[in-house]
Specification:
The chain is of the alpha+beta class. It has ten helices and 16 strands. A hairpin with a 4-residue loop joins strand 2 and strand 3. Helix 2 runs parallel beside helix 6 and helix 3 packs antiparallel against helix 6.
Length: 367
């Protein structure tokens, strides 16, 4: 007798043992059920199980949902190219919203929603719903049982009525196929601009100011900075004066601001070891791009004692005394420097844009 059995005297004085399985085993080997097997409730047939017209109607409903999914995907693809980036409209409850964002979001949401609703309706009305019970067995199935499981999976398309319902099969394929296109289009569209010159130029280029020097402005106050304002060890976050034009026009403000972010620092000129860095600065005041050359995070942490700039995302570290070369971390390029001077009024101005593209490396950077 094992530890899971208990021994009690039977009604006729015969010794019986009760096991965990719910059966009562008499000492002479006969087994008596303690609990009656409740079994499964009777299977209730659905309308589509017995009426082919109802099944056809359910098939058309599922196909309609998949068709609406395809329509939503097509609307997304068209809107991605047709709706202008700057188009806006009033959306109740939100206010002024981007037309493209709303259309893309709704169309993609409808597309995936209709795939889900169609699949649920298909399962509820046409797929088999007979309950099955599998007796407990050892973890390792026998070869015959494994072969049976493979056959059941292989036979899945048949029991799901795919051969009998070609309308569902084709519309499901179309819905899933078209739904993949918006996702792929977003991936392709996020690989970067087709014109790589956009990545090489910023609004620090003098061409953005009719060839005239561009004043350095405090961010976000947008007030000019005098040389005397920059004390030893101080740090300024800087934007170009030309940014105001883009703000007024409301075009590509975030993109241009991201590429133009600059950090301005003053240190002892004798600590600057690279001649070019000294020539591009003024009395130890140097300006470098804030955009990390690893993946584009903002390099905004300055260690005054070591003269290191630190990127908080992945700990890339740049040495200001060595023209912001990388001394630690995953970044592979130094931060681009901005050439600055002092104008007649004593304000700091940029007399030349960055000497190389800002931000992470890209395939066409050297072209």
């Amino acid at each position: 007798m094992n530890e899971n059995e208990t021994t009690t005297p039977g009604e006729s004085g015969v010794l019986v043992s009760a096991t965990q399985g719910g059966a009562v085993e008499q000492s002479h080997g006969e087994a008596v059920d303690r609990f009656e097997n409740p079994g499964l409730p009777p299977h209730v047939h659905r309308l589509a199980d017995d009426d082919e017209r109802a099944a056809k109607r359910a098939e058309r409903q599922v196909a309609t949902m998949f068709g609406l999914s395809m329509l939503g995907a097509l609307v997304f693809l068209v809107a991605y190219f047709v709706v202008p980036d700057e188009a806006t409209f009033y959306f109740p409850g939100i206010g002024i919203a981007s037309t493209q964002n709303i259309v893309l979001g709704l169309s993609l949401g409808i597309s995936i929603l209709m795939i889900g609703l169609g699949a649920v309706h298909w399962a509820k009305t046409l797929m088999p719903d007979t309950e099955m019970v599998e007796e407990r067995h050892e973890q390792a199935s026998s070869p015959a049982e494994r072969a049976k499981a493979v056959a059941a999976v292989t036979n899945g398309a048949t029991v799901a009525q795919l051969p009998r319902r070609p309308l569902i099969k084709y519309t499901l394929g179309g819905a899933l196929g078209l739904f993949a296109l918006p996702l792929g289009l977003q991936v392709a569209g996020s690989l970067g601009p087709t014109d790589v010159e956009e990545l090489k130029h910023t609004i620090w280029d003098l061409s953005a100011n009719d060839g005239k020097p561009i004043r350095l402005m405090r961010d976000p106050e947008m007030t000019p900075i005098k040389l005397e304002d920059v004390t030893n060890g101080s740090v300024f976050h800087v934007m170009p004066e030309t940014l105001q034009k883009y703000i007024d026009e409301g075009k590509h403000v975030l993109e241009e601001k991201a590429k133009a972010a600059v950090i301005l620092i003053r240190l002892d000129p004798n600590l600057i070891k690279v001649q070019k860095a000294r020539d591009w600065g003024v009395d130890g005041v140097v300006a470098y791009s804030k955009i990390c050359t690893h993946v584009g995070c903002a390099v905004g942490l300055y260690e005054q004692q070591t003269h290191h700039l630190l990127c908080p995302c992945h700990q890339s570290t740049f040495d200001l005394t060595e023209d912001c070369t990388v001394i630690f971390g995953p970044a592979k390029r130094a931060l681009p420097q901005l050439k600055i001077q002092v104008d007649d009024a004593g304000y700091l101005v940029a007399t030349q844009g960055f000497d190389q593209p800002v931000g992470p490396s890209f395939w066409e950077r050297l072209r």
